Amino acid sequence: MKRLLFLLLVVAAGVGAYGWYRGELPRWGRAAKSVIDRVRSGTPIALAPEESAVQPGAGASARIPDDALAALRSDDASRRNAAWEQLSRLYMNDPAVRDALASHLDRFTSAYVLSDWRDESVAELVNVRPGYSLARIADRRGTTIEAIKRINNLNRDTIHPGETLKVLNRPIEVFVSKREFRLWVTYGGRFLKEMRCGIGKGNRTPSGAFVIAEKQRNPDWFRPGQPVIPAGDPANELGCCWLGFAETQYKGLGIHEARDGRGIGQESSQGCIRVARADIDFLYDFLPYKTVVTILE
User: Is 116 in contact with 152 (CB distance < 8 Å)?
Assistant: First the structure.
């Protein structure tokens, strides 16, 4: 061991002298010191992570398969959908890739799922018959009237026999990562949309599974033992929309607008989840009653 250490010191001195001659002493000196420190500590001499030939400089993007990203843009629906499923699993299972992957998945769902693009592999195409209504179609397929109208660009509540409507017919779920201040929506277990959020101060937002039991636009804000703050009042923290959870041991929890974007990316509320105005509009329109919201640490 001593002989090996002596030889390494000689090599390090020679390397250092050469580095001095080249004007690169700091870099060569660090490398030599790293080797010597590992020998002294009994650590096997191998490349440290920061010296590895495979640099993490590629970051999280290196873990996203290029072939799947290419398939997501394919003209072949089966290839697109297979990539959607694969990348959705990666997004949900690996928090490190979410920032890099979200924009790709969001472009896909905006183009093929949340638009009026007609593709029976991602949604049901309903041929309207006499007696059909938006409420009947939505109820039987577990979606909402608002979602049907948005996807099909309808600005009316009536539909007519002979029309064909694209209807989302798979379960919608919501997940919230408190650590990341991130909320995402899934459709049939696949990524649908992501948004930033705010949560409760001092860990007041509990973890667990909750169910949406109340939906209200322009809600009044009721606070225990205090005057009601009406909708539209600048002091009303609920904003334009309220999605209330069924009461468990926790009361008064739900998702609402972050007024003027306040508190997004922060622990800022009394326990509720806050999202931007455009995002709460989306959630209000697309989340049916009984949607499960899973809050993760």
Answer: yes
* 59-69 pLDDT, tens digit each: 667 789 999 99
- In order of 54, 105, 196, 224, 274, the CA distances from 179 in angstroms are 29, 21, 11, 29, 14
Query: For position 60, what pLDDT does the model report?
Result: 67
Task: Report the C-alpha gap between 165 and 253 in whole angstroms.
Answer: 34
Name which of 93, 89, 88 is nearest 105 in CA terms. 88
Residue 59 is predicted with a pLDDT of: 63
Please say whether the structural domain 124-167 has been given the CATH code 3.10.350.10.
Answer: yes
Can you tell me whether residue 244 is helix, strand or coil?
strand
Residue with tokens 């860990």: 203
Residue 165 buriedness (CB in 10 A; 0-12 / 13-18 / 19+): buried
Residue ranges for the chain with pLDDT beneath 70: 1-60, 249
Q: How far apart, in whole angstroms, are the C-alpha atoms of residue 276 and residue 239? A: 10
Q: How far is CA 92 from CA 13, 194, 220, 226, in A?
A: 51, 11, 35, 41
Q: What would the CATH number be for the domain defined by 172-296? A: 2.40.440.10
What pLDDT shows up at residue 17? 41
pTM for the structure as a whole: 0.78
Q: Name the residue ranges covered by the structural domains of the chain.
A: 64-112, 124-167, 172-296
- Can you read off the two tokens belonging to residue 77? 């629906």
